[in-house]
Design goal:
Number of strands: 10
Strand order of the largest sheet: 6-7-8-3-9-10
Strand content: 5-15%
Shape: elongated
Oligomer: single chain
Helix content: 55-70%
Structural class: alpha/beta
Length: 550
Amino acid sequence: MITFGSVLRHGRGRLPVIGTVALLGSLTVLALPTVLGRAVDAVVVDGGVGRWVLIACCLIALGIVCDVVEVLAGTACVAGTTAWLRDRLVRKVLASGPAVTSRFSTGDLVTRVSSNAHDAAQAGPATVTAVAAVVPPAGSLVLLTLIDPWLAAAFLAGVVLVIAVLWAFTRRTAEISLTYQEIQGRIAGMLTEALAGIRTIVAAGTTRREERRILGPLPQLHEQGLRTWRVLARSGAQAAVAGPVVLIAVLAVGGIQLVRGRITPGEYFAAAQYAVIGAGLGSLTGVLGELARARAGITRAAELTAAEPVAYGTLSLPLGPGRLTFDEVVVQAGQAVLLDHVDLDLPGGAAVAVVGPSGAGKSVLAAVAGRLIDPDSGQVRLDGMPLGGLSRAALRSAVKCAFERPALVGATVGEAISVGAVPAVPLLHVARATHVHDFVSRMPNGYRTPLADAPMSGGEAQRLGLARAWTAGRLLILDDATSSLDTATELQISETLMGDRQRRTRLIVTHRAATAARADLVVWLDRGRVRAVGSHQELWADADYRGVFG
């Protein structure tokens, strides 16, 4: 779980450096008025002014060095923390699986991992800077007390006003920053959805409507931006009033004490400088704004890390044919029941077609069988072992899935096929078995063709997805993974599937009667329930079954 404290702890290697130089810089700021005051007194009494001027120059040089080191260390700290946060968030997203990531849009996830992570990484340096910024006013109060208690009282009265302004600014900015980031995430999510379906949008002539939909929250974003500037302007104006109040109060009281002979001209000069330091506390609005944005970024990152990742067991699969069993499996989405007490005992090595009307639960059944989601109740077993008890390596080498719209990853076409493959399985063997070699061999660079430059139809992309899953050791799941293939290619792949020499269990979600006819067994789903199990020929006698295929 990412928290404000965990972000601070990650920067502990550089935060002490930032804190040390910030503190040293603050002490330099505190020392400079006293040194300059001594120089003024030395001028008045015609003493050794050169020594005090030299010390003042050294302090100024030291302050510049501290500022440079603080900027360098702060930049390095933010960069390192940003990389750490993004690494954790990406790992968390990938480990959580579709059951968790489906709660967020793709654009929102990208926003959280990119810009929000950078905002959150500002927490460490901003906190140290804010704490160090308290030292000069606090030190000024102490030193003014040593010069004259009445000066300290006047200073404190003015500083309280500045602190009140900063407190109000921080409270308002924290809420605005979080709302601003949330609206940004919504816009990014809708834009990502539109880009994924850009062909449909252009073909349907709904470009203008999509523009209005995506940019619909823009006025809200604009309003939050205006609120930020209004709060900043109001706080700046209030600080601009409160700051001079500090200075005027100290100068007025100091003038009276100077006339009475209770302080020297040099002390009066130093008091004026300390009053300027107190008045400058209002400039902390920038740092406090960074802290507010950091807290908002951490809140949005924490929403991702709060989700529990997919938990794997430690068991291995025993030898077996790939028998797949569903025991009273129930899957719900809110109040909707997607799978309703499904009981199935599918023989190992069989080609099993899963059919049913739209919304019958076919893809949900496939997802549960591949442990892409876990059932709300009930259990799925492979050769007698519960899927939840298997180790990640055992499960993912035994069970693989191919989808209707495969997401192809990798730098080249060859890498897209071999992702997650068993090293011992030759690439060409897999490519030929799934008829991928037929079109890849015609590409200029073959399997070394960059994936981004590979011209592919929807059916060819499906074949690549099928090739990637072909290395399944025990259970191969196809979720409508041949729907975009032409009839001849689909027939070739169907024959390869049905005559699988490895005799793996094949769970095939399909809408085609021909595919169901070639399967060893058909599972007929209707409204999340198993309506019937049997061969295609047996079920074909039922008119409702025939209606599934139109």
